[in-house]
Amino acid sequence: MAVLALIHHAGGSAAVFRRLTRLLPDHIRPVALELPGRGRRWREPTLHTAEDAVRDLTDLLVRETGDDADLSILGHSMGAYLGLGVAAALERRGGPHCQVLFASANLAPQLATPLFAEGAAPASDEEVLRRAAGYGALDTGPLRDPHIAARAASLLRADFDIADSFVRTMARTVTESRIVVCRGRQDAFGDEHTDRWRWSSVQPLSTLTFPGGHLYLESAGAEPLAAAITSVLTEPAQSRT
């Protein structure tokens, strides 16, 4: 059975993959990973560096799947960068080997710049929430509650730290995995933003576009994304290595 590890976006959780996982066929086992501070791990302290996040997710994935899994990874937005880091970490570890990295809804890491200047005073909660809203990945309704808004800002701040840390220290990571870029047609990222994902793999790059925006996998893009993943993961093994 093929295993598809799922890594969420900044401020998100495994819940973003609920619709997608319901659409996957029985021979693909989804394993939704969550960083500390949310979902089933909400009591755990948040992480703030890419190195810590990649180590945490790699250890969690190996515990969930073992060393011999037929593994691929789908990382969404920030999760695309962490997926790249996890795929490379698994190669250094010696297994399980990631066959395909679906890099969803993010520009090539070599083109990214940190959201916040290193060493600058911490951004206000309002600024953190404003940055998140700019990506179209924030449900503003619940944020009318000040306690929910403060919690959301705290989680986003930690994840933005992780993303900025990745851009500063791990953007040149290269994997042996095949990379398939996935993006929403109405998202901000076009070919000029995603073509350089080819620099992150020793294999040729593929790009797939789906209806919807940044969170296309929660809306109209979920069904065609599930079909595309199924097609890629059922190709003959020799074409995926």
Shape: globular
Helix/strand order? EHEHEHEHHEHEH
Give the % helix: 25-40%
Q: What is the number of beta strands?
A: 6
Give me the number of helical elements.
Answer: 7
First and last CA, distance = 17 Å
| Regions with little confidence, pLDDT below 50 for 5+ residues | none
* Main pleated-sheet profile: 6 strands, parallel
Taken as a percent bin, the fraction of beta residues is 15-25%
Roughly how many Å is the radius of gyration? 17 Å
The overall pLDDT, averaged over residues, is 93
Main sheet strand line-up: 2-1-3-4-5-6
Task: For this entry, give a set of tags.
single chain; 241 residues; alpha/beta; 7 helices; 6 strands; 36% helix; globular
Describe the protein in words.
It is a single chain. This protein has seven helices and six strands. The chain has 241 residues and is of the alpha/beta class. Helix 6 (191-194) links the parallel strand 5 and strand 6 (206-210). It is globular. The model has no long low-confidence stretch (mean pLDDT 93).
